[in-house]
# Entry
Amino acid sequence: MLYRKTTSRGVATVAVLALALTACSGHDGKKDASDRKRVARGTGESATGEAKEGDVFVTYDLTAQKVELGTEAQTAKMVSEPKLAKGLVPAIAYVKYTHRSGPTLTERPRASQPTTIWADGRRGTLIVGAADRTPGCEAPSSIKGWKRGETHVMCETYLVPKDAKKLEVHWSEQGGQTFIWKFPATR
# Structure
């Protein structure tokens, strides 16, 4: 049990640090001229994009399947200072990736790293490692020898305002397009 408690404390510390850094970053979540081309996708539609895996690029078909919203009580358990996260709830994006072309991966896949969740036009705050323990989500560290044709579902957890109306899942190719899937903020 010591390992679990230590891991939870580590995640909570990272979450509070992420909240503080996001609050101080000066980024207001609005698009600017430096944003890459954005391609909106309907719920359930797939996109094809490349991700750098080590020294090579791998092509994936990916689909943001859904976004699940949690409660403020769940947020309080995720962070070490719940007062800093008042009014925020966890949003978990489930993204399905199919390895389409490129070599078999011998290391931990990085495909899910460019995934972000936005609420009402503002980027949420990443909670590192929280989705790895979510049912239906695979931890990238548990995926070994990912071969062409294989599919995995990886998730990301972000904190978003509890009263958000619209949610978006963004996935960006390195130096390329950003794909966006839109979801209603239903509980």
In short: The chain is about 15% helix and 40% strand.
